[in-house]
Every structure is written in C-alpha cells, then in structure tokens.
Amino acid sequence: MKTIGIMFQHLHWANQKILETLKKVEGEIPLTRLLFSHILFAEHVWFTRLKGLNSSHLPIWDDLSLEECEKLVMQNYQDFTEFLNGIGEEELEGIISYKNNKGEEFQTSVRDILTHIALHGQYHRGQINQRLRSDHFEPVNTDFITFVR
Questions:
Q1: How far apart are the first and last CA of the chain?
Q2: Angle at which helices 32-50 and 66-85 pack, to 10 degrees?
Q3: Of 1, 30, 73, 143, which shows the fewest CB atoms inside 10 Å?
Q4: May I ask the CATH architecture of the domain 2-148?
Q5: Stated pTM of the model
Q6: DSSP code, position 140
Q7: Residue 29: per-residue pLDDT
Q8: Over the range 91-119, which residues count as b (16 or more CB within 10 Å of their CB) and which as e?
Q9: What's the pLDDT at 33?
C-alpha cells in the first residue's frame, strides 16, 4: 500500500507541475491542454469505476479550460486521498467489474487499476512535454526520482 500511496502523491505533484507550466505558457499550444484534460478525465473515470459507479456517460477526451483543469486536479486528489486512506492491503486484491466507454465489460483488481492510473498520466505528461519542447518551451521535469528527492 505504501508504494501505491507514494505513486499517487507523485501523480498529484506531477499534475500540479504541468498545470503551473501550462498557466505560464503564452498562447495556445495545440493538443497540450487536451492531453492534460484527458489525464484528469481518465483519473475521474477510473475513480468512478473504483467506487462501483457507472462511468459510461463521463467524458474521456474533452477539452477543459485551465481553470476547470485546476478544479479537477484538486477534486481527483481529494477523491484518491480519501479512497486510499480508506482501504487496506487486502482490499487491493479485490476485483472491480466495470464497462469501458464502448460498453465492453472487464474485471480488474483494485491494485492493477491504481497502478494503471499512476502510469497512464505519466505517459501523457511525456506527450505534453514533447509538445512543449517542439514549441520551444522548457519541458516539465515530472520524473519520479525528482519528486522523491
């Protein structure tokens, strides 16, 4: 449980770093805000599934304003902090049944879902950094090792 908790602390820190950078960037960089919105929506969708609720109506690829992103960063942080504080090691092996946005049914352990959430965001933050660099902005160091230092 300790490792997953640290992964989610890193996730929140990295989201905040990206948000701060996007606020400072002058002008629009195509796709960066959409990618960041996707990270946040995906976290929300997975949280909804972990709570046993239907997520099929929730957006996954929609563009939020930076103000809306900031609100969702904080909401996701609060949701996952509360969720992680309320479960024990044995509950990580529990199986969650859910449907994806195409209506396909899956069953996955809580541990695997939480691991996916933490890794999924890092993948897309890398894409955001690639877009920043190609538009001559300094990429954001969201490496885990930087976080733990």
A1: 20
A2: 30
A3: 30
A4: Up-down Bundle (1.20)
A5: 0.94
A6: P
A7: 76
A8: ebeeebebeeeeeeeeeeebbebbeebbe
A9: 94
Closest alpha carbon to 97 in 87, 107, 88, 85: 107
What single DSSP character describes residue 138?
A: P
**CB-neighbour burial class of residue 127 (10 A; exposed 0-12, middle 13-18, buried 19+):** middle
The type of residue at 107 is Q
Would you state the structure tokens that stand for residue 125, as one six-digit string? 């933050």
Q: What is the mean pLDDT of each run of 10 residues along the chain (149 residues)?
A: 92 97 82 96 98 94 94 98 95 95 94 97 95 92 95
- For residue 64, the Cα-to-chain-centroid distance in whole angstroms is 14
Contact status, residue 12 vs residue 77, Cβ threshold 8 Å: yes
Closest to 52 in 3D by CA, of 100, 87, 97, 88? 97
Domain boundaries, the chain: 2-148
pLDDT at 62: 93
The answer to whether residues 128 and 116 touch, using CB atoms and an 8 Å cutoff, is: no
